[in-house]
Design goal:
Butyryl-Coa Dehydrogenase, subunit A, domain 1, Butyryl-CoA Dehydrogenase, subunit A, domain 3, 361 residues, globular, 53% helix
Length: 361
């Protein structure tokens, strides 16, 4: 592993930064909060134009044929700009479908996903953690029943990727009879969530062998992307706080010159830098160290969730009472970190899983 970005990765990040600076950010987050829509956002259309919809798709299916490290870099930029996109769900879907047993159908769908012509929602919350409120998808014969909470990227058309009690993933058309969806209350207005209910939905298994291993890989990838998103959001909050303390004055001097404020920034820098290294290690392992991918993803998300939450709180507090006001808008980044912290497993559950994977419990 190179402990630095290649020139190609630097250029990719710069292109993404330019696109998201124009098509995402505070104004777009406010619009998504007040006028929610299932139509593609300007940020998603920009990602499609840049080819980010096909990051993990083979070149033969119109993709870029890159890896999870590049996907994590992309997620970090999206978090920095609180971009409203189905990138996480879309990327996990391409990862799962790309390994599917159904070669011809998978190749056709991958090409459409790479071009941004279709979308896939991801309903893996119950498979990643303990089911809540009686939720969970059950396979009974050739039919699926039950419900799924905290579904990400759920499209009006397209497909839904979900997992049953046997840890087999299924790819179900969104308009299948018996499949109903409704919006869920969401802490983060830029990442809408959906609840699914299934009553007699025909099974559409993706794998004939070792389905649990494929599911574990997809969940691990999702945790890495969520960690990257949170890291990007925390980086933005730190930059905003730094700009504020350099211009806010008390007792005739900028408050950033006070030793207590300097200590807070030193603490944040000391938290962010190792978090970035941990993210890179976990992202690299997804493609290059299969035996460690689940463990490193769990550890990375758990640690980064705690670190970014603390950074977000500190940055808000530095702004005083106005820090959480709608006028300033920092709450969009704060809430993005807060919701992502719990998706696909919160820190406590992930540390418990990491201990189990290491044979410690």
């Amino acid at each position: 592993m190179e402990f630095g970005l290649s020139s190609e990765q630097d250029m990719m990040c710069q292109s993404l930064e330019r696109a998201m600076s124009a098509q995402a950010g505070l104004a777009h987050a406010r619009q998504c909060a007040t006028q929610p829509s299932r139509e593609p956002t300007p940020a998603w259309r920009s990602l499609t134009a840049l080819g980010a919809t096909g990051l993990l798709v083979p070149a033969a299916q119109d993709g870029l044929e890159l890896g999870m490290f590049d996907a994590a870099l992309t997620a970090q930029v999206l978090g920095r700009h609180v971009a409203t996109t189905p990138f996480l769900a879309h990327t996990l879907a391409t990862l799962a479908i790309g390994s599917s047993d159904d070669g011809n159908a998978a190749r056709k769908l991958l090409s459409r996903l790479a071009r941004g012509d279709t979308a896939v929602g991801v309903a893996l919350s119950e498979a990643a953690t303990a089911p809540r409120d009686g939720a969970g998808v059950r396979r009974e014969g050739d039919l699926l029943h039950g419900s799924a909470l905290f579904v990400m990227g759920q499209p009006a058309d397209g497909h839904v990727l979900l997992a049953d009690q046997h840890r087999q993933m299924h790819l179900v058309p969104a308009r299948t009879p018996g499949l109903q969806s409704r919006p869920m209350p969401s802490v983060d207005a830029t990442t809408p969530l959906v609840e699914l209910r299934l009553e007699g939905v025909p099974v559409q298994p993706l794998f004939s062998t070792e389905p649990a291993d494929h599911l574990a890989r997809v969940i691990a990838a999702g945790r890495v992307l969520l960690a990257a998103d949170a890291l990007g959001a925390a980086e933005h909050l730190q930059a905003q706080a730094l700009a504020y303390v350099q211009q806010r004055r008390q007792f005739g001097r900028a408050i950033g010159s006070f030793q207590a404020i300097k200590h807070l920034f030193a603490d944040m820098a000391a938290a962010l830098e190792p978090a970035r290294s941990l993210l890179w290690h976990a992202a690299h392992a997804q493609d290059h160290d299969p035996g460690q991918r689940s463990l490193l993803a769990a550890l990375a998300k758990a640690h980064i969730a705690d670190a970014t939450q603390a950074i977000a709180r500190t940055c808000i507090e530095m702004h005083g009472a106005m820090g959480i006001t709608d006028e300033l808008g920092l709450h969009f980044w704060f809430q993005r970190i807060a919701q992502g912290r719990q998706l696909l497993g919160g820190p406590a559950a992930l540390r418990q899983e990491a201990a189990r994977l290491q044979g410690l419990c």
